[in-house]
Amino acid sequence: MSNSLEKLKKEYRWDIYQCSLKCFNCMYINPHYLISQDFYINCPAGKFFGFDTFYSGGRMEIARGILDGSIKLPLKDNKMLLKVIYACTTCGSCENICYYNREIRTTEVFETLRELLVENEIGPMPEHIKFLKSISENFNPYNEDKSARINWLDEDEKLNEIKNNILENDYKILYFVGCTSSYRTKDIAKATVKILNKLNIHFKILGMDEWCCGSPAARVGDTILARKMAQHNIKVIENCGANLVLFSCAGCYRTFKKDYPKWGLNYNFKVLHISEFISELIKNNKIKLGSIDKKITYHDPCHLGRHLGIYDPPRIVINAIPKINFKEMARNRFNAWCCGAGGGVKSAFKDLAIFAASERLIEAEKTTDAEYLISTCPFCNLNLKDGKKNIETKIIVKDLMELLLECRVELIE
Ligand code: SF4
Ligand code: SF4
Fold it and tell me: Considering the chain, what is the average pLDDT of its residues?
């Protein structure tokens, strides 16, 4: 029996049979929190494709069929089944809302189904194979040269000195930049470094020794490649002697914090999202912030929110800025609508990714009238900006670090 089939049978049988009702309540937000009828459905995949199979209950039924043998492996010619299993952002809204059992682990079941497809050489989708090849050869999913990983430092003279830190071993704090900010949303990496500099935080980055965190590979079922990335990253971080690693990417952070230990890969350093790090400084009255007179709303990235339960730190940072006018969207915190990019969807199901991002922007505009839509994940940022090309909206998509850069940030000694 294959590893993942055994895992489905032993570890996830309970979850799969918990969903025997197929009640499909998990397609909505929790009705106790209902603010707007327009923003009630909360599964991007189900809403986009428009029928039951593409909601959580449909995928759980496929898992049950595989367990009891009514769906026969290897599924080679069933292209529709492949599509259903991969057309899900693994956002976690369904497992958050499941009325039948609060402990259900739908996204782990879906990721194990994907592992099973990869093991049987049926999955992933052709678009995923391209980025997996790039991770394997270039250590990033964007088909970019590995030597270009630190090019964002050259784009700003003031940041160039960070390059010296790459060679030194005695920094206790490390900033793990992540592939998306290194190659696509470089302004987030630059803003993070500038904020850390303003706060007199001595830190280093790994430069070319930083490899993809493994998240894109893990989400589409290639756990062998994901583990290879994880083992390398843990080794280089432990060798450099850092005892605290900061992340500006919700996806990298979730992978280090939740997945590495789940894969049996433990490490001797502490990990924090930059929003947690700065919110702690704010709580301890260590930071003085200048004002921003703007209407702001916040998008919870699924990796940081539902997958790690981190909702307050970004809100603490935003609300610490004097004059800011903060308003929540109709779907927020554990009811947040996914940006649409995760789980390999942005590469294999581009229309679904753009649909979800556009809906988030419309929700921000209609339910908050905000000028800025703030997030704490470069991949959300990238997809929301792509969604903006699809609709008419004045809202500006920004990362929390870019927002901070707009005001005076000082460390109180
Ligand atoms: S993880 Fe998200 S996209 Fe996937 S079935 Fe659940 S709610 Fe839908
Ligand atoms: S995951 Fe829970 S809420 Fe969704 S269909 Fe299954 S039992 Fe119902």
Answer: 95
410 beta partners: 288
How remote is the CA of residue 88 from the centroid of ligand 1, in Å? 5
**0.90 surpassed by pTM:** yes
| 405 and 301 belong to one structural domain | yes
Residue 41 lies in a domain: yes
Rg, the chain, Cα only: 21
251-308 pLDDT, tens digit each? 999 999 999 999 999 999 999 999 999 999 999 999 999 999 999 999 999 999 999 9
Residue 12: per-residue pLDDT: 97
Which residue range forms the structural domain that includes residue 396?
287-411
Query: What is the number of the ligand closest to the CA of 90?
Result: 1
For residues 299 and 332, the answer to whether their CB atoms sit within 8 Å is no
CB 89, CB 45: distance < 8 Å: yes
Check: CB of residue 179 under 8 Å from CB of residue 210: no
The verdict on residue 135 lying in a domain is: no
Dump pLDDT digits (tens) for 74-89: 776 788 999 999 999 9
Question: Which amino acid, 7?
Answer: K
Count of structural domains, the chain: 3
The mean per-residue pLDDT over the stretch 29-33 comes to 88
Gap from CA of 102 to ligand 2 centroid (Å): 10
- Residue having the nearest C-alpha atom to atom 1 of ligand 1: 90
